[in-house]
Amino acid sequence: MLTHLDSQGRANMVDVTDKAVTAREAVAQAVVRMRAETLDMIVSGGHPKGDVFAVARIAGIQAAKKTSDLIPLCHPLMLTSVKVELSAHGTDAVLVVARCKLAGQTGVEMEALTAASVAALTIYDMCKAVDRGMTIESVRVLEKLGGKSGHFTAAES
Questions:
Q1: Residue 75 assigned to a binding site
Q2: In the predicted model, is pLDDT for residue 18 greater than 80?
Q3: Sorting pLDDT into bands at 50, 70 and 90, what band is 10?
Q4: 62 three-class SS
Q5: Is 15 a catalytic residue?
Q6: Residue 21 above 70 pLDDT?
Q7: Backbone phi, then psi, for 19, in 5-degree steps?
Q8: In the chain, at which residue ranges do the beta strands (DSSP E only) sit?
Q9: Do 57 and 119 touch, CB atoms closer than 8 A?
Protein backbone atom coordinates (compact mmCIF):
# COMPACT_ATOMS: atom_id res chain seq x y z
CA MET A 1 0.00 0.00 0.00
CA LEU A 2 1.29 3.47 -0.88
CA THR A 3 0.90 6.07 1.83
CA HIS A 4 2.71 9.15 3.05
CA LEU A 5 2.39 7.89 6.64
CA ASP A 6 4.74 5.41 8.29
CA SER A 7 3.65 2.78 10.83
CA GLN A 8 3.74 5.43 13.60
CA GLY A 9 1.56 7.85 11.59
CA ARG A 10 4.43 10.20 10.72
CA ALA A 11 4.75 11.87 7.32
CA ASN A 12 7.12 9.93 5.10
CA MET A 13 8.15 9.79 1.44
CA VAL A 14 6.42 6.87 -0.32
CA ASP A 15 8.81 3.97 -0.96
CA VAL A 16 8.68 3.19 -4.69
CA THR A 17 11.62 0.77 -4.64
CA ASP A 18 9.55 -2.22 -5.74
CA LYS A 19 7.55 -0.40 -8.41
CA ALA A 20 8.36 -1.13 -12.04
CA VAL A 21 9.95 1.50 -14.24
CA THR A 22 7.39 2.46 -16.87
CA ALA A 23 6.78 5.31 -19.30
CA ARG A 24 4.75 7.97 -17.52
CA GLU A 25 3.22 11.21 -18.72
CA ALA A 26 0.96 13.88 -17.28
CA VAL A 27 -0.76 16.93 -18.73
CA ALA A 28 -1.97 19.80 -16.55
CA GLN A 29 -3.54 23.17 -17.23
CA ALA A 30 -4.06 26.58 -15.71
CA VAL A 31 -6.16 29.47 -16.99
CA VAL A 32 -5.15 33.10 -16.39
CA ARG A 33 -8.14 35.44 -16.72
CA MET A 34 -7.45 39.08 -17.53
CA ARG A 35 -8.83 42.14 -19.25
CA ALA A 36 -9.06 41.90 -23.03
CA GLU A 37 -6.59 44.79 -23.35
CA THR A 38 -4.03 42.88 -21.32
CA LEU A 39 -4.38 39.80 -23.49
CA ASP A 40 -4.07 41.95 -26.62
CA MET A 41 -0.86 43.48 -25.26
CA ILE A 42 0.61 40.02 -24.57
CA VAL A 43 -0.39 38.51 -27.92
CA SER A 44 0.73 41.55 -29.95
CA GLY A 45 4.17 41.51 -28.31
CA GLY A 46 3.63 45.01 -26.97
CA HIS A 47 4.40 44.29 -23.31
CA PRO A 48 7.17 46.58 -22.05
CA LYS A 49 8.80 43.67 -20.16
CA GLY A 50 9.18 41.59 -23.33
CA ASP A 51 7.77 38.29 -24.56
CA VAL A 52 5.44 37.18 -21.75
CA PHE A 53 4.81 33.74 -23.25
CA ALA A 54 8.54 33.00 -23.68
CA VAL A 55 9.36 33.96 -20.08
CA ALA A 56 6.36 32.00 -18.71
CA ARG A 57 7.34 28.93 -20.76
CA ILE A 58 10.88 28.93 -19.37
CA ALA A 59 9.60 29.50 -15.81
CA GLY A 60 7.22 26.54 -16.14
CA ILE A 61 9.95 24.24 -17.43
CA GLN A 62 12.34 25.27 -14.66
CA ALA A 63 9.62 24.79 -12.04
CA ALA A 64 8.82 21.26 -13.24
CA LYS A 65 12.48 20.34 -12.79
CA LYS A 66 12.43 21.71 -9.21
CA THR A 67 9.10 20.22 -8.05
CA SER A 68 10.67 18.04 -5.37
CA ASP A 69 12.27 21.17 -3.86
CA LEU A 70 8.85 22.84 -3.63
CA ILE A 71 6.42 20.05 -2.67
CA PRO A 72 7.19 18.15 0.55
CA LEU A 73 7.57 14.37 0.15
CA CYS A 74 7.60 14.60 -3.66
CA HIS A 75 10.21 12.35 -5.30
CA PRO A 76 13.05 13.99 -7.24
CA LEU A 77 12.58 12.83 -10.82
CA MET A 78 14.69 12.73 -13.96
CA LEU A 79 12.22 14.22 -16.42
CA THR A 80 12.85 13.34 -20.04
CA SER A 81 10.56 16.00 -21.49
CA VAL A 82 8.76 19.12 -20.28
CA LYS A 83 6.64 21.19 -22.65
CA VAL A 84 4.68 24.28 -21.70
CA GLU A 85 2.27 25.67 -24.27
CA LEU A 86 0.59 29.05 -23.87
CA SER A 87 -2.19 30.46 -26.02
CA ALA A 88 -4.94 33.04 -26.04
CA HIS A 89 -8.16 31.50 -24.75
CA GLY A 90 -11.13 33.50 -25.91
CA THR A 91 -10.80 37.25 -25.57
CA ASP A 92 -9.84 37.44 -21.90
CA ALA A 93 -7.63 34.52 -20.89
CA VAL A 94 -4.40 32.64 -21.44
CA LEU A 95 -4.50 28.84 -21.43
CA VAL A 96 -1.37 27.20 -20.04
CA VAL A 97 -0.89 23.49 -20.80
CA ALA A 98 2.10 21.64 -19.36
CA ARG A 99 3.16 18.12 -20.37
CA CYS A 100 5.81 16.15 -18.47
CA LYS A 101 7.28 12.76 -19.36
CA LEU A 102 9.72 10.26 -17.93
CA ALA A 103 10.52 6.59 -17.58
CA GLY A 104 10.35 5.95 -13.87
CA GLN A 105 8.73 4.44 -10.80
CA THR A 106 6.33 7.24 -9.96
CA GLY A 107 4.07 9.61 -11.84
CA VAL A 108 4.66 13.16 -13.02
CA GLU A 109 1.34 14.79 -12.15
CA MET A 110 2.93 17.10 -9.57
CA GLU A 111 5.56 18.21 -12.07
CA ALA A 112 2.94 19.05 -14.70
CA LEU A 113 0.79 20.89 -12.13
CA THR A 114 3.82 22.82 -10.89
CA ALA A 115 4.85 23.78 -14.42
CA ALA A 116 1.35 25.04 -15.28
CA SER A 117 1.02 26.91 -11.98
CA VAL A 118 4.39 28.65 -12.15
CA ALA A 119 3.89 29.61 -15.81
CA ALA A 120 0.53 31.15 -14.81
CA LEU A 121 2.12 32.95 -11.85
CA THR A 122 4.81 34.31 -14.17
CA ILE A 123 2.15 35.77 -16.47
CA TYR A 124 0.53 37.37 -13.43
CA ASP A 125 3.86 38.75 -12.22
CA MET A 126 4.76 40.24 -15.59
CA CYS A 127 1.32 41.81 -16.11
CA LYS A 128 0.22 42.84 -12.61
CA ALA A 129 1.26 46.47 -13.11
CA VAL A 130 -1.29 46.84 -15.92
CA ASP A 131 -4.01 44.47 -14.67
CA ARG A 132 -4.28 43.81 -10.92
CA GLY A 133 -7.61 41.99 -11.35
CA MET A 134 -6.16 38.93 -13.08
CA THR A 135 -7.10 35.53 -11.67
CA ILE A 136 -5.54 32.09 -11.98
CA GLU A 137 -8.17 29.37 -12.35
CA SER A 138 -8.76 25.77 -13.30
CA VAL A 139 -5.39 24.39 -12.25
CA ARG A 140 -5.90 20.67 -12.76
CA VAL A 141 -4.59 17.45 -14.25
CA LEU A 142 -6.09 16.88 -17.70
CA GLU A 143 -4.51 13.52 -18.41
CA LYS A 144 -2.22 10.93 -16.85
CA LEU A 145 -0.72 7.98 -18.69
CA GLY A 146 1.34 5.05 -17.48
CA GLY A 147 2.03 3.40 -14.19
CA LYS A 148 -0.04 0.91 -12.25
CA SER A 149 -3.19 3.06 -12.20
CA GLY A 150 -3.23 3.39 -16.00
CA HIS A 151 -4.82 6.11 -18.09
CA PHE A 152 -6.81 8.99 -16.60
CA THR A 153 -8.58 11.70 -18.58
CA ALA A 154 -10.36 14.53 -16.77
CA ALA A 155 -13.99 15.21 -17.54
CA GLU A 156 -14.65 18.32 -19.60
CA SER A 157 -15.50 21.40 -17.56
A1: yes
A2: no
A3: confident
A4: helix
A5: no
A6: yes
A7: -80, 145
A8: 22-33, 81-88, 93-104, 135-145, 152-153
A9: yes
Select which of 51, 69, 92, 125 is catalytic: 125
- 135-145 β-sheet, strand order: 81-88, 93-104, 22-33, 135-145, 152-153
Show Cβ contacts of residue 142 under 8 Å, excluding neighbours closer than 6 positions: 27, 28, 29, 97, 153, 154
CA separation for the pair 114, 92 (Å, rounded): 23
- Residue 127 marked as a ligand binder: no
Q: Which residues lie closer than 8 Å to 152 by C-beta, 6 or more apart?
A: 141, 143, 144, 145
pLDDT digits (tens, 9 = 90+) for 98-115: 999 999 888 899 999 999
What is the separation of C-alpha 123 from the centre of its chain, rounded to a whole number of angstroms?
13
Is 156 annotated in some ligand binding site? Answer: no
Indicate the DSSP class of residue 5: B
